[in-house]
Write a structure and sequence with these properties.
Length: 127
């Protein structure tokens, strides 16, 4: 058993951003700026997916070590991301944040869950 696994917390942060006014942003621009801000906000032990669905953008971040079970931290982090998105998309931008603990201590006495990430397995004949 990895001695550090007892202290690992993996969480998922999903930000849904609806611009307040019609703003045309290139996908590469939004992805690049979000990645730079995400590295500053969450650090290097993270992965991010950016999607554009109609006029709304979805930024999904899986990260390690952030206390997603602490309401004050989630509120603070959501405020930082909201300020970032409002600066990029303009006044009236609506930012919704959904957080989920994927692995680690739930802080309620139950044993911690483990997160195992396995690369995709190619199977012949299956598309």
């Amino acid at each position: 058993m990895n001695p550090n696994s007892a202290h690992q917390i993996w969480s998922r942060w999903t930000f849904t951003v609806t611009p307040g006014r019609p703003v045309v942003r290139a996908f590469a621009e939004v992805q690049g700026h979000s990645a730079r801000f995400g590295r500053k906000a969450f650090g290097a032990a993270s992965e991010m997916k950016v999607e554009c669905r109609g006029e709304a953008w979805t930024i999904d971040v899986r990260t390690e070590g952030h206390p997603v079970h602490e309401d004050a931290y989630v509120t603070w982090m959501t405020a930082q991301w909201s300020r970032f998105f409002k600066a990029g998309f303009g006044i009236g931008t609506v930012v919704e944040c959904v957080t989920k603990l994927e692995a680690g201590s739930r802080q309620d006495g139950r044993p911690a869950d483990q997160l195992i990430i396995v690369p995709p397995i190619a199977v012949e004949g299956v598309v």
